[in-house]
Amino acid sequence: NFNKLGSVFTDVYADYPSFNVFDKNGTKIYVAYNFENLPKYINFFDRNTNTYIGSLYVSSYTMVWSQNLEFKDNKPQIISINLKEGSTISATIDILINAQDDFGITKIELFIDDIKVNEWQGIVSTINYVYTLNTLLYSDGMHRIKAVIYDTSSQQTNLEVNVYFDNIIDNLNPYVKILQPQNGDIVMSDVYIVYYASDDIRLDKIEFYVNNILLESLSLTTTSITGSWLWKVDDFQEGSYVIKVLVYDSANQINYDEVNLTLLKQQTESESYDYILRNYPNPFWIEKEVTKIKFKTDKKYNDISLQIYDTSGKLVRELQILNLSENRYLSFWDGKDKFERFVQPGIYICRLKYGEKIFNRKIVALR
């Protein structure tokens, strides 16, 4: 007899059609019927405010009544937001937030630096919230964007994202300078490319190229930087290379600097003569070392000459030759010219000539 439970109370409703709520002297009695084959929670809400009150657990094909409800409401969940932490935005942008709740989202508040700029109210289980933000109304720099999502039980979930507002007109290209090594230098092993870069607003990216092939790219968020990048030469053959450092600023403007380097890998000395012309060490240090030059001929010749030239073709020195045995020869160069003066560091050509044959070898002198 439901009359004993009190009068019907209509200010509460449930999310399942078979329910009743009674009021007896201010005490609420909740009744629910489950005509399905599976147990379930039946949820009750305040009809005036649409807020969640609680739930009754009802077994299959069962009726339950109780003065007490279980609270089964989860906090709202933010599925996604289109802003990334630390990202840069400018002009006008739509902030997109996707959220959901098991019983309903009732309010969304949006804050910029703790100042509320927008509020949405309603009741939906899922929402794609959109707010158009005009960053020109704010100063350039880092700002905190916070969204607060409320559900029917006044539970809330917060999300904060720090983003950079950038509306400064950048008319100046970034600056970059390779500090070491110097243009024209000779390298024999892995070498650090030391650089300095700056921009009036912000540097965003730096790239490193060898002969116009991109080897590495790094993100930046600074106005100036002094750094170094290691060029690993193991996979490169001896020869000339152009090292380029390219930088981008926040307006995607670019600038670059480059140096021409010669790669000559350190050679090891060999006692064998399975070559025509060879020297060791190469490169060698002027005033500290003497490079030993070995060569062989296919037969005995009377007109053998061994000379050192610079890269312009000018004769630097005629070298003396020692005949060892079996058409094998030895010579030395101490880094001096024909006037007994030490030459400038650089690349020199050792030219061997006998009969109608000419052989050249590159020798690098360092200081």
Short description:
The chain is an all-beta fold. Helices cover 0% and strands 62% of the residues.
Provide a descriptive summary of the structure in words:
By secondary structure, this protein is mostly beta strands. It has no helices and 28 strands. The chain has strands at residues 7-8, 12-14, 19-24, 27-34, 40-46, 52-58, 62-66, 77-81, 88-89, 92-112, 115-134, 141-151, 156-165, 175-180, 186-187, 191-210, 213-231, 239-249, 254-263, 277-280, 284-285, 291-296, 305-310, 315-318, 322-325, 328-333, 346-354, 357-366. The strands form 6 sheets. Strands 8, 9, 10, 11, 12 and 13 form a 6-stranded mixed beta sheet that branches. Strands 14, 15, 16, 17, 18 and 19 form a 6-stranded mixed beta sheet that branches. β18 (239-249) and β19 (254-263) form a beta hairpin. The N and C termini lie far apart (110 Å).
What is the N-to-C order of secondary-structure elements (H for helix, E for strand)?
Answer: EEEEEEEEEEEEEEEEEEEEEEEEEEEE
State the end-to-end distance. 110 Å
SS strand fraction: over 45%
Low-confidence stretches: 270-274
Biggest pleated sheet: 6 strands, mixed
